[in-house]
Amino acid sequence: LATGPRQNNSIFYEIRTYDIKPSKMKEFVEMVNKYFHLRTAHSELVGFWSAELGAMNKVVHVWKYDNFAHRTAVRHALANDKDWQGKFLSPALPLIEKQRNEVAYLVPWCQLGKPPKEGGVYEWVTFQMKPGGPALWGEVFRAAINAHINTGYTKLIGVFHTEYGLLNTVHVIWWNESPDHRAAGRHSAHEDARVVAAVRDSVRFLESQQNVLLIPLQCSPLK
Fold first, then answer.
1. Which of 10, 39, 101, 178 could form a disulfide with 67 if both were Cys (CB 3.0 to 4.6 A apart)?
2. Closest CA to 60 of 222, 214, 189
């Protein structure tokens, strides 16, 4: 029931979320900054962030794959990469409390964007929608996203719909210059009748929503 329209190719994105032991967060980030080039040598990293608000001691990273065979080949190569296994993975695993991964596709009306400049913050918004997939709620969800874009206060980076993981989940990534810039824009949007009307239509299909403010790590292509 959850499978719906997506980009007209086999490209997908693996979203990995790790909970880090609170006392080990600084150590984990330092290891990522020092050794993560060993991982990105094997496949394309879209972004790597640490949570600042809405969650703590959490990192999120997104990987792009051409297809599932591509991912299988990359995972096989990583398992045989002694530098990656010895310098990063083995020392990092004891620092991690929990790992979760999802496979998601960009929705067909969205291309993966980039921020207009470096130095901003990212808002990761997760919508848990009612069962039925985009055939049920896709158009009103798109209208709500476009209403926020049209206010001009924020920059859309991407909209992802899950294929593996918790189904009927949509992840939306926004970019803002700063947390204060985001707060001011949200205030303006809440007073915009166009946004209010579009959101009112879409929330009929909404089960829950979670927002996390993310800071890009040094290795992140999206900064």
1. 10
2. 214
Q: What range does the domain containing 81 cover?
A: 12-105
Coil, helix or strand for 29? helix
Tell me the pTM: 0.93
Dist. CA 145–CA 172, nearest whole Å: 9
Structure tokens at 16: 């990995």
| Both tokens assigned to 223 | 């900064």
In a domain, residue 168? The reply is: yes
| Angle (CA) 217 218 221, round 5° | 85
Instruction: State how far the alpha carbon of 190 is from the alpha carbons of 12, 83, 187, in Å.
Output: 33, 50, 5
42-75 residue pLDDT tens: 999 999 999 999 999 999 999 999 999 999 999 9
Domain CATH for 78? 3.30.70.100
Burial of 31 from C-beta contacts in 10 A (0-12 / 13-18 / 19+): middle
In a domain? residue 36:
yes
DSSP H helix total and E strand total for the chain: 8, 8
